[in-house]
Design goal:
single chain, 16 helices, six-stranded parallel beta sheet, Rossmann fold, 345 residues
């Protein structure tokens, strides 16, 4: 497992992370830029990739991998350049998410791992051969294939078995403003256990702990490695709509209330959440309490959202993707051996 960006030049890492500055000071501008990138054949000029990623290229040339799996579009573009300009001979698998950027689709990609439906259709429409497209679903932790029932999960996690559980996520990086979220939760009139997970943002976790210290029905956590169990225990999820979070919620059959999406990918995912009817999008902060009160008052609507999510769930996606990638590699290996035999003959 490699963080490819950590192996690139320092100035290139700064360039790639500069979007965080735009997100904080001018999110609409970043949304406009990201929208252009989403539809373009490249997210970054090739010459800039080649200049900034030389340490990464040397690292991979030294190790001569047989298979490279790219789980982010920029890494896919870098791997494409390695094959195109440096003649590296490896099988390249692109593990695309729910919202597929056009730049994923390059002739050097040997296998596309995509969710079925809209995502697979966009990859095909961009010109990927059908033989390369494997609609196995977006890979998810195998733990989602064997989730405990809600009562068992609550007992293990120390939650009351008979009171609804609201799980509040701020994403792995911990984006979010407690000053906007907590007043909305105070307007929820149902008795509910609230679990906040602040990710790797220690300052956010400390702020949530301070604000919730007098509430016996609230619990604040940082980064957790058992999100599958927390999702199994919950009745509703209130979260920023990152692709991994949405995918996890679908595989847990957990109705999702999305809030504060970042411009670009997350905002497009909000449209998908409503199209698929697996949750609701709180377009304004003031909508959160009304949506939560409605869903907590309506077991029928929660069940409908849960059943829609369960119908889309593909908890074996990682296993099926691995089989597809290895099958393609074995097929290519046989073809290469056959070609070598024909040359010798």
């Amino acid at each position: 497992m490699l963080d490819a960006l950590s192996l690139c030049a320092r100035w290139f890492r700064a360039y790639q992370n500069s979007y965080l500055i735009l997100l904080s000071i001018w999110p609409r501008l970043w949304g406009w830029i990201e929208g252009i990138q989403h539809k373009s054949k490249a997210t970054t000029p090739g010459w800039l990739y080649r200049c900034g990623a030389q340490p990464l290229f040397r690292f991979l040339r030294d190790r001569r991998p047989d298979i490279v799996i790219a789980t982010e579009v920029g890494m896919c573009e870098l791997a494409v350049l390695m094959k195109r300009f440096y003649r590296m001979d490896f099988l390249l698998a692109a593990s695309c998410g729910m919202d597929v950027d056009r730049a994923w689709v390059q002739p050097e990609v040997d296998v596309f791992i995509v969710p079925p439906g809209d995502a697979a259709g966009r990859v095909l429409a961009a010109g990927a051969p059908a033989s390369k497209v494997h609609a196995t679903g977006m890979p998810v932790d195998p733990a989602f294939a064997t989730l405990p029932n809600s009562q068992s999960a609550r007992r293990k996690l120390g939650l009351c078995e008979h009171t609804p559980v609201l799980l509040v996520l701020f994403g792995g990086a911990g984006f979010g403003d407690p000053d906007k979220i907590l007043p909305q939760l105070q307007r929820v009139w149902h008795s509910v256990q609230t679990v906040f997970i602040g990710g790797r943002n220690a300052r956010l976790v400390r702020e949530l702990e301070r604000r919730c210290q007098d509430d016996p029905y609230s619990r604040v956590l940082g980064w957790v490695n058992n999100i599958d169990e927390w999702m199994a225990a919950a009745d509703l999820l209130l979260s920023k709509p990152g692709a991994s979070t949405v995918n996890d919620a679908i595989n847990a059959g957990l109705p999702l209330v999305a809030f504060a999406p970042l411009p670009g990918n997350e905002r497009r995912l909000c449209d998908c959440i409503e199209k698929w009817q697996v949750g609701c999008w709180a377009r304004h902060t003031k909508d959160i309490s009304a949506i939560l009160n409605h869903l907590l008052s309506s077991p029928e609507d929660r069940l409908r959202l849960r059943e829609n999510a369960q119908a889309m769930a593909l908890p074996r996606a990682a296993h099926d993707a691995a089989e597809a990638i290895l099958g393609c590699w074995q097929s290519q290996s046989r073809e290469k051996r056959g070609a070598q035999t024909r040359v010798r003959d």
